[in-house]
Amino acid sequence: MKLGIAADHGGFELKGIIVPLLQSAGHTIVDYGADALNNGDDYPDFVVPMARAVASGDIERGIAVCGSGVGAAIAANKVPGVRAALIHDHFSAHQGVEDDNMNVICLGGRVTGYAMAYELIDTFLKARYSGGERFERRLTKVRKLEDGK
């Protein structure tokens, strides 16, 4: 799968550990930064370009990491077509995809351990959207919100 990853200083270390693991699992990774640890950087500078790539279809799914994951989720969800969520558990990692067609997983680099982060990402990547009628109905309502209706 072609994935995008973005992290600010709060997620930089976790990103550095996760990327090689994902590559060894056969995924193609597009890294949207940060390219160096800079405690003064801002998560929107990295997360928004990655989220736009997800929305445009340039990448299949995205991974956004900041200190808590909250800011990354807020920024990613400002991009129409992106359905991002802060994930802490396995159920939400797959249910978010299956029912809500989540396409960006957000993690907290300061609150999620490396092994858990990889497991959550793996669960997220293996999940598939069910496309059920009630889920489509709900996503249609979300799309209308994005269109300002």
Provide structural commentary.
- With 149 residues, the chain is of the alpha/beta class.
- The chain has a single domain (2-146), classed as Ribose 5-phosphate Isomerase B, Chain: A (3-Layer(aba) Sandwich), CATH 3.40.1400.10.
- Helices cover 48% and strands 16% of the residues.
- The protein has a 5-stranded parallel β-sheet with strand order 2-1-3-5-4, sandwiched between helices.
- Helix 2 crosses helix 3 and helix 4 (90-100) packs parallel to helix 5.
- The longest helix is centred in the last third of the chain and has 14 residues, at 133-146.
- It is globular and about 45 Å long.
- The mean pLDDT is 97.
| Low-pLDDT stretches | none
The CATH architecture classification is 3-Layer(aba) Sandwich
Structural class determined from secondary elements:
alpha/beta
The CATH C-level class name:
Alpha Beta
- Tally the helices: what do you get? 6
Per DSSP, what share of the residues sits in E-state strands of 2 or more residues?
Answer: 15-25%
Gap between N and C termini: 33 Å
- CATH homologous superfamily identity: Sugar-phosphate isomerase, RpiB/LacA/LacB
Q: Write down how many β-strands occur, each being a DSSP E stretch of 2 or more residues.
A: 5
Largest sheet, if any?
5 strands, parallel
